[in-house]
Amino acid sequence: MPQQSYNQLRAMLAITKGSFKAIMRNPSSVAFSIGFPLVFILVFGFIGSGGPSVSFALANRQDTANVIIRGLLKNPMMHLADEKDTAAIRKDLERGRIAAVVTLDSTQSAAGFRQYIVHTQTSSASGDKYPILKLALAQTFEYAAEEHMPVQYRPLIIDELPMIPGREYKMIDFILPGMLGFSLLGAAVFGVAFVFFSLRQQLVLKRYFATPISKLYIIMGEGLARLIFQLLAAVIIIGIGRLVFHFTLIHGWLTFLEMIFLSLFGLIVFMGFGFIISSVARSESTIPPFANLVTLPQLLLGGTFFSTDAFPHWLARICEYLPLKQLNDAMRNVAFEGAHLTACGKQLGILALWAIVTYAVTIKVFKWE
To answer: 84 to each of 90, 122, 180, 348, how far by Cα in Å?
Structure first.
């Protein structure tokens, strides 16, 4: 009788099932993948909205040379938004990214002096940013005095233009994608590195290699278990953020599914780092330093807790090449901005390049024993 061919798919699913059970029985995996991100989400969710600085835009970019604007920028809380066209500035205003759009004007006083008028236009989404801007404008009087500017030329009028409608940008809308991204990065790098090193050290991979199942299906089986577990963690994190803190999902379920797809794509990329570390590590004690070398810089520079706009220009440029930064940006664009995956070409492209590089290195260095 002809011998029945070995079912590679069934064998892979059996490995996936066994590996998934092992992950669920490991308290540290559950705590790191779900508990750790949730703690930060709860903390920042209860804090509310706000940020380390308040941005504003100028209707006329040439006003940066004006003593009023120089005085405004002297305040460490104030930040001038990047130069954009009128439509982009209005979009930022509607979404609460900037406190107001400022326009400078002057008029002839009754005594014959020229006086400045500061026109400001804000939105309902600016929250507590606009009061900070008004306070900073009041403080420009002191700066004008330091510049020996005549009293009659100091701004005496702040003209508030009609408020436009906007959508509030809450802190949870910034923090949740960052913590979700870092959860995916940490679990993929540490989880894959430790598990595959352990399997190799205990000769489990060597025994797998002696079975009829192909090498690719062995790796896919172990990797699939981690993908399923982390996607479940992503669902829990997004769900709690939405139900408890009203995390913004512009298009509802469609946005949720797009975030899950981004999570899956990011996981696949980040697992490549784990495969490399598990192969180059000589012992379990060397895995944490290698893993931290990959994860810690991205935690600090990947826009997890605060925007990279606060960094010097040269450092912000470097951050743009970090995979976690691109994943965080893509998730925020999809969740709050209402963009779809087709509008995240830059982020997905950089992540794809990282995937090509990491898995090319993995093929070269991966060891079975």
So the answer is: 10, 17, 30, 24
Choose the weakest-confidence range: 54-58, 84-88, 114-118, 315-319: 114-118
| Residues 259 and 234 grouped into a single domain | yes
At 51 the pLDDT is 43
DSSP SS3 for 304: coil
pLDDT-derived band at 97, boundaries 50, 70, 90? confident
Mean pLDDT of 139-167: 57
Q: In the structure encoding, which two tokens stand for residue 70, read together?
A: 């120089």
98 contacts 120 by C-beta, under 8 angstroms: no
Residues 130 and 239 grouped into a single domain: no
In a domain, 295, yes or no: yes
User: What is the enclosing helix (H) or strand (E) of 256?
Assistant: helix 253-280
Q: Are 298 and 322 in contact (CB under 8 A)?
A: yes
CA distances from 102 to 181, 203, 290 (A): 35, 67, 48
Pair 68, 199 in one domain: no
Burial of 349 by CB count in 10 Å (0-12 exposed, 13-18 middle, 19+ buried)?
exposed
As given in the structure block, the two tokens for residue 363 are 């093929």
Task: Give me the domain span that covers residue 267.
Answer: 8-47+170-365
